[in-house]
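Summarise this fold before class:
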Amino acid sequence: MAKAISSEQIKYIKSNRNIKELNLNKDQLGYYLVGLLEGDGHISLFFLGNTILNRVLNPIIIFTSHINIIELYICIQSALGGIGRFQLVNNNIIRYIIGDVKGITFFINAVHNKLRTPKNESFNQLVEFLNQKYNLTIPKSNLDMSDLFSNNWFRGFIEVDGHFGVKIVDSKSKSYTCKRSISSNINLKFIIGQRLIDNKTSLSMLNIMEKISQTLLCNLAVYEAKNNKILSVNVVAIDKLIYIINYFNKYPLLGIKNLYFKDWETVYMLMSK
């Protein structure tokens, strides 16, 4: 069940929590927003509404995340000039929704030519819809092929779709149930997972996941899941994790995941010593 989060509730959160402004220029804000969108957002295109008048409905852009980073999306809404609205789903999931023409047009201008995944096809369908309905001349968006570590795209993508893991294994002596002794150890891992086939576009995510794995100098794994294959980037080599640490020290995560990263980085520094 989804219910609206009122503007009064948003104002209350702003006044009672330490919410800072996003320190990003327009260009880098666009890269960050695209990373969030392509990590765990989508563009819904309604071509014919189920209404009595059979009217055409406007598309909507939806960002979905856990309630614990609502402050981040409040900052994003502020950076975008107050456009968009919020919903709460099942008491722990928030949706930040941009659905009015002014807001959608503002968003398109901010992220144009910055998408890297099959969502660029949905984005261009959105552009075509607005051009036809409102007599606009927005050009099609080209896929961004720049270095992943050269802007804020990877920052936004990992904000919603990255995992910083620490695995601790306790030592065990050889016994009846343990056929050989096990030494205690600690392993660090950085994981990114995506469906092979994007549900909304039915297009493959292989190209972007291959580029991520190549940038991080690691292998790309494929495994079976419910009705889909999952692409997984796993970085575990201690000498390769430094590239991730350097990036997120240059482009710090803006949500609660930055706290996880800092703990993870502390373990890395201890292991390095």
Q: What stands out?
A: The mean pLDDT is 89. The chain has two domains: 2-134, 161-272.
